[in-house]
Every structure is written in C-alpha cells, then in structure tokens.
C-alpha cells in the first residue's frame, strides 16, 4: 500500500555505449578545438623563438622585450651583449630578445 513498484528500464542499446559516447562527445570536441586554436599555435611560436635564439650571431640587429634596439656584439649561452649606440654596450638575457630585425634597420632609424 505505501510501497510503490519499481520497474527496470528497457535498454535500447544492449552494450550501453550509445548514451555514454553522446554525453562525452561535446567534451571531446571542445578539447580538439582548444588544441587547434590555442595549444598548437603556441607550440609553433615557441619553436620559432627557440630557432631564432639558436641562430643569433654577432652583427644581428634585435629588439628586446623592453623595447631596446641594438646590434649583437657578443653571444653567450645565457646572455647576449648588445651595442645600443657607439661605444655603449649592455648585457641582456638571451630569452629577452623578441625580434630579429633586417640588416640596416638601425641605420634607418
């Protein structure tokens, strides 16, 4: 009288995979889209930045993260010596160099 009957549901999918896959499909698609829009381009930029750092040589004209323009006078493992004007040199970390400028850019400024 006070207890109601409980009936089992009839399974539409005998393996039970259809319901689980469709519930996780938006989550999987979100991770795939995030990979192609965020992670992959960031890895590509990091690879290009590392290649530029490895290719730095004496005489290259560069811009640092602080906006300082200079010509590379000496390259070390971690530090780079920049000639910012005639006779003035400063030592910066190699990782702070953001852009490699075309030759002759500093003379045009």
Automatic annotation (TrEMBL):
Main subcellular location = membrane
Give a yes or no for keyword Transport in this entry.
yes
Which superkingdom is the protein from?
A: Bacteria
One Pfam family it belongs to = YajC
Its GO biological process terms? protein transport
Topology relative to the membrane, per the entry? Single-pass membrane protein
Q: Which UniProt keywords apply?
A: Cell membrane, Membrane, Protein transport, Translocation, Transmembrane, Transmembrane helix, Transport
Where it sits in the cell: the answer is:
Cell membrane
What cellular component terms from Gene Ontology apply here? plasma membrane
Recorded hits in InterPro entries, A to Z, give: Preprotein_translocase_YajC (IPR003849)
Give the protein family. Answer: Belongs to the YajC family.
Protein name in UniProt: Sec translocon accessory complex subunit YajC
Q: Which organism is it from?
A: Pseudoduganella rivuli
Q: Which gene encodes it?
A: yajC
């Amino acid at each position: 009288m006070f207890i109601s009957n409980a009936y089992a549901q009839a399974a539409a999918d005998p393996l039970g995979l259809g319901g689980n896959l469709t519930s996780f499909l938006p989550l999987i698609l979100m991770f795939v889209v995030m990979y192609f829009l965020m992670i992959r381009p960031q890895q590509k930029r990091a690879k290009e930045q590392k290649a530029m750092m490895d290719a730095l040589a004496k005489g290259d004209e560069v811009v640092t993260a602080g906006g300082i323009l200079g010509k590379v006078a000496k390259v070390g493992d971690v530090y780079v010596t920049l000639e910012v004007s005639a006779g003035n040199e400063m030592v910066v970390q190699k990782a702070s160099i953001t852009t490699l400028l075309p030759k002759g850019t500093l003379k045009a400024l």
